[in-house]
Design a protein that fits this description.
The chain has about 575 residues and is an alpha/beta fold. Helix content is about 50%, strand content about 10%. The strands form four sheets. Strands 4, 5, 6, 7, 8 and 9 form a six-stranded parallel sheet that branches. The chain has a five-stranded parallel sheet with strand order 12-11-10-13-14. Strand 8, helix 13 and strand 9 form a beta-alpha-beta unit. Helix 12 packs antiparallel against helix 14 and helix 24 runs antiparallel to helix 25. The longest helix has 22 residues. The chain is elongated and about 135 Å long. About 30% of the residues are buried. Pathway: Glycan metabolism. It is a single-pass type II membrane protein. It holds the Pfam family O-FucT.
Length: about 575
């Protein structure tokens, strides 16, 4: 049998004989085909007469018939029917070896069990029906595409910056008396979500240091929105917290018996941007007199512009002391490992919950019905609006004050070169509108997971109905990602931005909403031009070192360069 298949530039031919026929032919049967049986003398005389009469046409007909028959048998038995003809014999022989030793089959079987099984099926159909040169071209095209996609995972140049928290001699000398003092105690009540609480705990440690007081383990106020009753030790590793800060501030679990009956001085109105001098002048005499000071509402009250040693202390608390409790760290690292087991992954912090749309004065844009629900709740509860009340929704949107919705996140990622097969972990609460709100993302990026998707049955059960713990798990998986991007600002985005910078400036995409949204609204802009503009807008917003000195009033835990990081090897020191 002969089989051929045409291609644009090459032809591939097959000659095959069923294995059943080959196996059924013994050596004797083959000989019987090739050798004529003995004939009678009359037959011999007849054949001799044909051969002597060589000019007879019958002789030549018989000769050509036998020659052709024997040639076909020879060709059929010697040519391997599994190997097609190829103008590239080396490639063909390599493929034959792979098939014969079982490597190709086993490799493809393993791949078919994964998420790229459809790609293996495509390879099977191409390799059996098209010339091998087509496979070579296909692989080269895939290689170019993979090279372009790998640019998305490329990490920014950290310029050699590394953590350096070397403290001054004056700070170290003062520490000796501060950690031994047992007359002054600071109690702090922190509120809000987990990331908001982290910020207040950092401030509490610095204020305790300024006052030379011992810090009672911060009290986590019950969250009125989520009803989370978690305590400090439920979320953070308390013993680690005490150990890391042992030379800076004395941390105690509770007031000693000498102070337990003391009525603390309570302060509820710490002003914004309070300086160390203001704190000393306001609280030092009172805490010395009463022995105990109680502070509430510390959110963003402490000044962001502090002396160098106190800035380093802030970094030490945020990046070293506040480690999550072992159970949370364990499950968070497991989920991160599952995400990274098949290559790099992107973490998105999506702010698409109902309360976010209400508080920001923005609309989800899913449908008029959903927009009306948000507007009605904002009218009924105007105190929830934290944005500028004198701006319309469209003004907020163009000013970059609204969270990105799923469609906008999708277009941004595509423009920045995110591959369609990118593995994406999304952190955050359940979006308003449910799965429908995520359809643009899941349609373009099918490998889309959250902690519920990754966890095994029962793994998250110990943490159910504890929003702060769930936020901590999101934090761990996001921090371990290769690329991180928030859809909106906020405490978690800011904390992870600083954490990733401190870890060596891991890639962090900051959406330039104010400048890019006009292009999103321009439907006549060609896709290629749109992508070029978006990439240009974000070329300096990918997690490169950003000095805080050029951003007065910004938190050092978000911009740790230069107070907490340096690129001079002579000054690299943890303490």
């Amino acid at each position: 049998m002969a089989k051929s298949k045409n291609n644009n530039t090459n032809k591939l031919s097959y000659i095959s004989v069923p294995s059943q026929i080959i196996n059924s032919l013994s050596s004797s049967s083959l000989q019987s085909l090739l050798l004529s049986p003995k004939k009678s003398s009359r037959s011999k005389t007849r054949y001799l007469s044909w051969f002597t009469n060589y000019r007879s046409p019958k002789f030549w007909v018989l000769f050509l018939f036998l020659f052709g028959f024997l040639g076909m048998l020879k060709l059929g038995f010697n040519l391997d029917p599994l190997i097609p003809y190829s103008p590239y014999p080396c490639t063909t022989s390599q493929l034959q070896n792979l098939v014969s030793n079982g490597y190709l089959k086993s490799h493809m079987a393993i791949a078919s069990n994964g998420e790229n099984s459809h790609q293996v099926e495509v390879f099977n159909s191409v390799s059996h029906s098209q010339p091998l040169i087509s496979n070579v071209n296909l692989k080269s095209e895939v290689g170019v595409e993979e090279a372009e996609q790998s640019e998305f995972w490329k990490q920014p140049d950290g310029l050699g910056y590394r953590p350096c928290l070397a403290l001054s001699n004056e700070y170290k000398k003062a520490s000796v008396g501060i950690v031994k003092d047992k007359t002054k105690y600071l109690i702090v009540v922190v509120s809000g979500g987990m990331n908001q609480q982290r910020n207040q705990i950092v401030d509490a440690v610095v204020i305790a240091r300024i006052l030379g007081a011992a810090l009672v383990v911060p009290i986590l106020q019950v969250n009125v929105i989520w009803g989370d009753e978690s305590e400090f030790s439920d979320i953070f590793d308390l013993e680690h917290f005490k150990k890391v800060l042992a030379n800076d501030v004395r941390i105690v679990s509770s007031l000693p018996s000498t102070h337990i009956m003391t009525r603390p001085v309570e302060e509820k109105r710490t002003p914004l941007h309070a300086s160390p001098n203001w704190i000393r002048s306001r609280y030092l005499k009172r805490i010395k007199r009463e022995g105990v000071l109680l502070l509430r509402g510390l959110d963003s009250r402490l000044s962001k512009d502090l002396p160098s040693d106190l800035q380093k202390l802030r970094c030490k608390v945020a990046f070293h002391a506040l480690r999550f409790a072992p159970p949370i760290l364990g499950i968070g690292n497991k989920l991160a490992e599952r995400m990274s087991s098949k290559g790099p992954y992107l973490a998105l912090h999506l702010r698409m919950e109902k309360d976010v749309w209400v508080r920001t004065g923005c609309l989800p844009g899913l449908s008029p019905e959903y927009d009306e629900i948000v507007n009605n709740e904002r009218i009924q509860r105007p105190e929830l609006l934290t944005g500028r009340s004198n701006m319309t929704y469209h003004e907020r949107k163009l000013a970059g004050l609204c969270p990105l919705n799923a469609l906008e996140v999708t277009r941004l990622l595509k423009a920045l070169g995110a591959p369609k097969n990118a593995r994406i972990y999304w952190a955050g609460g359940h979006p308003f509108g449910g799965k429908e709100a995520l359809l643009p993302l899941t349609g373009e990026f099918p490998h889309f997971y959250n902690k519920e998707d990754l966890a095994l049955p029962g793994e998250l059960e110990p943490f159910s109905n504890r929003a702060s713990v769930m936020a901590a798990i999101d934090y761990i998986v996001s921090e371990n990602s290769d690329v991180f991007m928030p859809s909106h600002g906020g405490n978690m985005g800011h904390a992870i931005q600083g954490h990733r910078a401190y870890a060596g400036h891991k890639k962090y995409i900051t959406p330039d909403k104010r400048h890019m949204l006009p292009y999103f609204l321009n439907s006549s802009l060609p896709e290629a031009e749109f992508n070029r503009i978006i990439k240009e807008l974000h070329k300096d917003s990918l997690g490169q070192p950003d000095l805080r000195t050029s951003r007065a009033g910004k938190d050092v835990t978000k911009y740790p360069v230069p107070e907490c990081m340096c690129n001079d090897s002579r000054t690299h020191s943890y303490l």
